[in-house]
Design a protein that fits this description.
Blueprint (H helix, E strand, L loop, with lengths): L18 E5 L2 E5 L1 H7 L2 H5 L19 H7 L7 H15 L10 H13 L4 H13 L7 H20 L6 H13 L4 H11 L4 H4 L12
Antiparallel strand pairs: 1-2
Helix pairs in contact: 4-5, 4-6, 4-7, 7-8
Length: about 210
């Protein structure tokens, strides 16, 4: 979220991360503390978290993210959650990325999910099989989440950098959109500009990009 966005309780969302809350058909933003206080664990488990790429470990993350990160615990994400996260990244969140030819099946499954709010076990299995096949093109769920996280962090840096200092970060964003990947040298180069971010975001560890065998 933009750095000046305020939550449903009128407090600034300093982290830039927010949950979407449907408040009498009006979409508002909520902080993690607000969600913890007002929603059950089961309800929080059903919230799609597109910022998982900002966390070093992917497979073991519970709805209680802070506790999972500190203790290395948390339950495994179920396959329905993974499949829905994958199709929503594809169809909602990554329109600027060069995903090349989108799978018509994924588009269809996304339409069904938006209409019904769920997918069958068979549909989920096919989506995850497609995801497995797409890994050779850096389109695994893990890599898409990593790309989305880097896009978020680069955009936050661009918000605080003066215009005459934005060229390098803009070029990194274009590279990310085109290649679904940034090299170690490019990532190290961005550290000079990430230092202007808030402490929590500046020090956040992002996952590594997928290594694709040629």
């Amino acid at each position: 979220m933009p750095k000046d966005t305020k939550s449903i309780c009128d407090r600034p969302l300093i982290s830039g991360k927010a949950y979407y809350i449907d408040d009498n058909r009006t979409i508002k933003y909520a902080s993690e503390s607000y969600v913890r206080a007002n929603f059950s664990i089961e309800e929080r488990d059903n919230i799609l978290d597109f910022t998982r790429g900002l966390i070093a470990s992917f497979e073991n993350i519970s709805s209680d993210n802070e506790k999972a990160n500190l203790n290395g615990g948390g339950k495994k994400i179920n396959k329905h959650y993974k499949a829905i996260l994958y199709i929503c990244l594809y169809e909602e969140k990554m329109n600027k990325f060069d995903l090349r030819k989108k799978k018509r099946f994924i588009q269809k499954m996304y339409e069904i999910y938006k209409e019904k709010g769920s997918l069958s076990d068979n549909q989920v299995d096919v989506i995850l099989e497609i995801e497995k096949q797409e890994r050779q093109y850096r389109k695994s769920l893990k890599n898409l989440l990593t790309c989305y996280a880097y896009e978020y962090k680069i955009k936050r840096a661009l918000e605080v950098l003066e215009e005459d200092k934005q060229d390098y970060m803009k070029s990194m964003l274009e590279n990310l959109y085109k290649n679904l990947y940034l090299s170690d040298n490019q990532i190290n180069g961005m550290k000079n500009w990430f230092k202007y971010l808030t402490e929590d975001l500046k020090n956040t560890k992002l996952k590594e990009f997928d290594v694709v065998k040629k």
